[in-house]
Design goal:
The longest helix is centred in the N-terminal third of the chain and has 26 residues, at 59-84. This protein has helices at 3-15, 18-25, 29-43, 59-84, 106-115, 128-136, 183-186, 199-208, 224-233, 277-287, 290-300, and strands spanning 48-50, 55-57, 91-97, 119-125, 142-146, 155-163, 165-170, 190-194, 216-221, 238-241, 251-255, 263-270. With 301 residues, it is α/β, with parallel strands linked by helices. It is 42% helix and 23% strand. The chain is elongated and about 70 Å long. The strands form four sheets. A five-stranded mixed sheet has the order 4-3-5-12-6, with helices on both faces. α1 (3-15) packs across α3 and α1 (3-15) crosses α4. It contains eleven helices and twelve strands.
């Protein structure tokens, strides 16, 4: 059995499509099919059910998926630890970022790439649920997000700063000069909100759960950049974490004055897992970045 075969198997298991998997692996479909057949013969188990319409995992295939992931992870860890002996940072660093943190990570990325040119950064923007799943599958080394409301025994949280939900408006909006805004005041305005499932939206729903407030929601959008454009060009208000507009000119964050309006920006990592030197260095640089220090200052105000 070869690691290559396990990687091929996982790609087919994830796509359930031999032609798509072959393209992603940059090999021919016939080569992929033959390698899967070789693996099945060696294990003496059929891993996939194939017909003209679909590809499905067999019971043996389903059992092999987590074992194959763990085997590949252990092999990669071995290589990384050997590389550490060279006392140099190399390889790839896979970072997950929720949309609310997109403007905060750029400074650290630029500084890190300048200091460690031999490390390739792969940054994935996705929902919290998707990022946690990727982290647990060892597809990500760390995730920058707000602390999850539900505890996960497999995830560790390193708190970076405290934050609040805020009404995000343009510099010319009537709310722009206010130091805070209540939920009752927000009822007067038209809102464009992050889509259900995004962290800021989940936090907002929790904040208003025990109130009788009724809001005029004009749109729900899963892309923060589009929310920003709408707020820039209209009198609409969006609700995001205060930190989201760091380094965003023309926008103001007005903290919402409400009980339990508290969020923690965190680095999430897999508990008891090997941590790459590049991940440790990136976390250290991020914790000392201007964006993080700025948000720490905001929390103290």
């Amino acid at each position: 059995m070869e690691l290559r075969q396990l990687k091929y198997f996982l790609r087919v298991a994830e796509t359930l499509n031999f032609s798509v998997a072959a393209r992603e692996l940059f090999i021919t479909q016939s080569t992929l099919s033959q390698q899967i057949l070789n693996l099945e013969h060696e294990l003496d188990q059929q891993l996939f059910e194939r017909n003209s319409h679909e590809v499905l995992l067999t019971e043996a295939g389903q059992m092999l998926v987590p074992l194959a992931r763990e085997c590949i992870y252990d092999a990669d860890t071995l290589l990384q630890r050997v590389q550490e002996l060279k006392q140099m940072l190399t390889g790839e660093l896979n970072i997950g970022v929720t949309f609310s943190f997109s403007s905060m990570i750029a400074e650290t990325m630029a500084d890190f790439l300048k200091k460690y040119p031999k490390v390739k950064l792969n940054v994935c923007y996705a929902s919290m649920t998707d990022l946690i799943n990727k982290l647990q599958r060892h597809e990500l080394d760390l995730v920058l997000a707000f602390k999850p409301t539900e505890q996960n025994a497999h995830i560790e949280s390193l708190e970076l700063f405290d934050n609040r939900l805020a009404a995000i408006v343009s510099d010319h909006h009537s709310l722009a000069q206010k130091k805070s805004v209540t939920l009752q005041e927000l009822e007067k305005y038209c809102l464009v909100l992050p889509a259900i499932g995004m962290q800021a939206r989940n936090a907002f729903e929790q904040l208003i759960a025990d109130t009788d407030c009724h809001f005029r929601i004009k749109a729900e959008i899963s892309y923060v950049s589009l929310l920003f454009k709408l707020v820039h060009q209209t009198c609409y208000v969006t609700i995001l974490a205060e930190s989201t507009v760091v380094n965003e000119p023309g926008l103001r964050a007005i903290p919402i004055d409400a009980p339990s309006n508290h969020m923690q920006g965190c680095i999430l990592t897999l508990k008891d897992a090997y941590q790459k030197p590049s991940a440790r260095e990136f976390i250290q640089m991020l914790s000392q970045s201007t964006a993080i220090l700025h948000n720490t200052t905001l929390a103290d105000m």
